[in-house]
Design brief:
By secondary structure, the protein is mainly beta. The chain has one domain: AOC barrel-like (Beta Barrel). It is 3% helix and 53% strand. It contains one helix and nine strands, in the order E-E-E-E-E-E-H-E-E-E. Strands 2-3-4-5-6-7-8-9 form an eight-stranded antiparallel barrel. Strand 4 and strand 5 form a beta hairpin.
């Protein structure tokens, strides 16, 4: 979701390598995390959670050429790939966005997506500040499991911009956390 100029949205296509998809389960009992890299118990105390940590996403934006052009907004599609720290493809993302300039001059993006991850599908969205993302701040979108082991779980998709290797292409450090 990071487009530096309003005409350049944030979210996009293809992912980059740089993370290990660490799926972490935290049990509701006092048994604690199922893996050493699990979120601290205080973070999701008493909840069953699955986290996809250390993912890298490379996203490519495709502006919608059928949308009415505007000096202050851009409509398009984002396609992305999630890779683990070994560079292995572990998931994909398909989203749509409207990037726009707010009255105060900052840029924002309304984004909705579906993602395919190991264990199932996730859908979600929200509004993020393109201005904040371009400054390296973490952004958060809603995440709802819609199929497989993830069905019925809710949580977040957090991401931080790590680069823009080409026009219309952005890379992000990504974490999905879904809980009962």
């Amino acid at each position: 979701m990071l487009r530096l100029p309003v005409t350049s949205p944030v979210r996009g296509v293809a992912l980059a390598a740089a993370a290990t998809a660490v799926v972490t389960c935290t049990a509701a009992a006092s048994a604690g995390p199922a893996s050493a890299s699990a979120a601290p118990a205080s973070h999701h105390a008493g909840r069953y959670c699955i986290s996809y940590d250390n993912l890298t996403e490379q996203a490519q934006v495709q502006p919608d050429t059928t949308a009415t052009p505007s000096a202050t907004s851009l409509v398009g599609r984002s396609l992305g790939e999630f890779r683990n720290s070994s560079g292995r493809l572990v998931g994909t993302e398909d989203g749509t966005f409207v990037a726009y300039q707010k009255v105060d001059g900052t840029r924002a993006e309304l984004f909705q997506y579906t993602a395919q991850l190991p264990g199932g599908s996730v859908a979600g969205g929200g509004t993020v500040s393109i201005t904040d993302i371009s400054l390296g701040q973490e952004a958060t979108l809603s995440a709802v499991g819609t199929s497989g082991l993830l069905r019925g779980l809710t949580g977040t998709w957090k991401f931080t911009l790590t680069g823009a290797p080409a026009p219309g292409v952005t890379t992000f450090r990504t974490v999905f956390t879904l809980c009962l």
